[in-house]
Amino acid sequence: MDLRFSTLLVYVSAYALVACLAVCIATGVYYVAEVIEENTQKVKKLLRYCILATAGAHAVLLVWDRQPLTCVLSGLLAQGAYYQLLTKNFPYISFTSPTTLFSGAALFVNQLAWYLHFSDTYETIEYIVCFCLAVVWLVPLVLLLSVASQDGVLPGAPGAGPSTAGRANAQDALYGGPKRGFLLQVFYIVQAHTTPYIKLFASYLGIKLGRKGARRDI
């Protein structure tokens, strides 16, 4: 095994680069989630178009490319399941509802079907990832960025249930507000748990963190 100091530097630099890329991606996802949250009706319309376009792409894949029927049918079934999530209460959904659970199962079956298909081909990993991004993952990713848990909805809001009143105030502090999307809730939970450690580490370095860039609750 090569134990040169230059090799150690390469590994350290590689891991640092991966960490920086992860932070950049997380920042971009956070920004996109904020934009989506402020334009839910436009995103709902965009999702409809994406679902129809993806369903049309599956039809072309079957007729033109002669792709396996199981892959195409599972893909069409998944798109139909995603479409059922675009109700009048969107972006508020219940993650334990039959429609949501069926959508997750349809995504798994569709991904498994394409995985089994590509395991018998000689396509490159780049080809497979880009193909799945357009055909399998596009709509679920936008949905994941858009939806909000129905359990966090304030009483009176679309999709609010009678059991949300007692939990609303307690969840606001943790989830960042009454209208947070699912991924934004995740970001705020991570922020709430990591901020004390970041401040402690900064104090050891003699860095004083102010509140100038603090998040503003809606």
UniProtKB/TrEMBL annotation:
Recorded topology in the membrane: Multi-pass membrane protein
Keywords in alphabetical order: Membrane, Transmembrane, Transmembrane helix
Cellular location(s): Membrane
Range of residues in the leader sequence: none
The organism's place on the tree of life at top rank: Eukaryota
Listed transmembrane segments: 12-33, 45-64, 92-115, 127-148, 182-207
GO terms for MF: COPII receptor activity
Pfam families according to UniProt: Erv26
Entry keyword annotation includes Transport: no
Record-level GO cellular component terms: COPII-coated ER to Golgi transport vesicle; endoplasmic reticulum membrane; Golgi membrane
Keyword Transmembrane helix: yes
A GO BP annotation: endoplasmic reticulum to Golgi vesicle-mediated transport
Entry similarity comment: Belongs to the SVP26 family.
Protein name as it appears in the record: Transmembrane adaptor Erv26
Organism of provenance: Chloropicon roscoffensis
